[in-house]
Amino acid sequence: MNSVVSRAAIEPRPQAAAEEVVRLIDVKRRFGATPALDGISLSVNRGEILGIIGRSGAGKSTLIRCLNGLERADSGEIRIEGRDITGLQEQELQPLRRRIGMIFQHFNLLSAKTVEDNVALPLKIEGIARAERLKRAQELLELVGLADKAQAYPSSLSGGQKQRVGIARALAARPALLLSDEATSALDPETTRSILALLRDINRKLGLTILLITHEMEVVRGIADRVAVIDAGRIVEEGQVWSVFANPQTDITRSLLGGIRPQLPDHILGRLSATAGSEVILSVDLAGPQAQGALFAELSATLPHSFRLVHGGIDHIQNQPVARFFVAVPAHEPALAGKVEQFLTARSARVEVLGYDTDHA
């Protein structure tokens, strides 16, 4: 059994639960004629996990570099714990950066230093006495499950262990905000799940605010409270994770969700027509109690022989059931698809007509 970690040593200062740690107001950053950030506004409350997701080139890296002061915004405000950092000089940024921890995709550990010394490095830079910083390092290594690796070198660690060291190092200076820059992209799925579980555990134990930059919707689903979708330097969609997954509003969000939401099988998708066929294919998105209730049994009782289920499934995100189904409605009665759609939308489903199946026997 691991020894008890000192709570006083690892817990941040108590703060009001709804206090904003991060607020961005109309932040813009250009590189030549190209806008990398084009009017970003968002906030993150203390203790919250916000996932920012987008494709490569969407502006994620520029955003995170503006948050930690490595890039200067051209205009707008970036407030960390209430203080606007956009006009601060480098010397003024240094104490503020200690309130921000960073974990990286490729770990950024120093190969010539032990695990213990890697974790303690921020405290050494800060001028903390060796005994105190090593005590802190040991506490954090216990927190991330690597107390027995203190004297090991990074070369002897697995990728997941290296990232745990990176997380411990990021927590060394007791930050108010933890920034994660594609921190699981270099890891296999099983290791990714263990790192996300660790981050969620740290978030709950310490009340730590986490901002995740990622291109993986699986990461957002696994850990985030809210998600913001960034595209071409703009936030195009934002909300609770379960809500965005259940009802994505933009094409980019639907595309990013394509790999983890049920999709119409290719052999059916390939034979859809926009004008005529034997069946009309509908996609049906549901969330909340309706997603796991007797909705289709109700539909069958109300409109007998009106549909068949083609494909779909139910997921649970943030303890909310979220479902997507594909329904085929006979096309021989022109009004039937409209009746089915009306029945479902009246019960809070989002229904979309995908086309006509031209080859259903």
TrEMBL record:
<dbReference type="Pfam" id="PF09383">
    <property type="entry name" value="NIL"/>
</dbReference>
<dbReference type="InterPro" id="IPR017871">
    <property type="entry name" value="ABC_transporter-like_CS"/>
</dbReference>
<comment type="function">
    <text>Part of the ABC transporter FtsEX involved in cellular division. Important for assembly or stability of the septal ring.</text>
</comment>
<dbReference type="InterPro" id="IPR003593">
    <property type="entry name" value="AAA+_ATPase"/>
</dbReference>
<keyword id="KW-0067">ATP-binding</keyword>
<dbReference type="GO" id="GO:0006865">
    <property type="term" value="P:amino acid transport"/>
</dbReference>
<protein>
    <recommendedName>
        <fullName>Cell division ATP-binding protein FtsE</fullName>
    </recommendedName>
</protein>
<dbReference type="InterPro" id="IPR050086">
    <property type="entry name" value="MetN_ABC_transporter-like"/>
</dbReference>
<dbReference type="InterPro" id="IPR003439">
    <property type="entry name" value="ABC_transporter-like_ATP-bd"/>
</dbReference>
<keyword id="KW-1278">Translocase</keyword>
<dbReference type="Pfam" id="PF00005">
    <property type="entry name" value="ABC_tran"/>
</dbReference>
<comment type="similarity">
    <text>Belongs to the ABC transporter superfamily.</text>
</comment>
<keyword id="KW-0547">Nucleotide-binding</keyword>
<dbReference type="InterPro" id="IPR045865">
    <property type="entry name" value="ACT-like_dom_sf"/>
</dbReference>
<keyword id="KW-0813">Transport</keyword>
<keyword id="KW-0029">Amino-acid transport</keyword>
<feature type="domain" description="ABC transporter">
    <location>
        <begin position="22"/>
        <end position="257"/>
    </location>
</feature>
<keyword id="KW-1003">Cell membrane</keyword>
<keyword id="KW-0472">Membrane</keyword>
<dbReference type="GO" id="GO:0016887">
    <property type="term" value="F:ATP hydrolysis activity"/>
</dbReference>
<dbReference type="InterPro" id="IPR041701">
    <property type="entry name" value="MetN_ABC"/>
</dbReference>
<dbReference type="InterPro" id="IPR018449">
    <property type="entry name" value="NIL_domain"/>
</dbReference>
<dbReference type="GO" id="GO:0005524">
    <property type="term" value="F:ATP binding"/>
</dbReference>
<dbReference type="GO" id="GO:0005886">
    <property type="term" value="C:plasma membrane"/>
</dbReference>
<dbReference type="InterPro" id="IPR027417">
    <property type="entry name" value="P-loop_NTPase"/>
</dbReference>
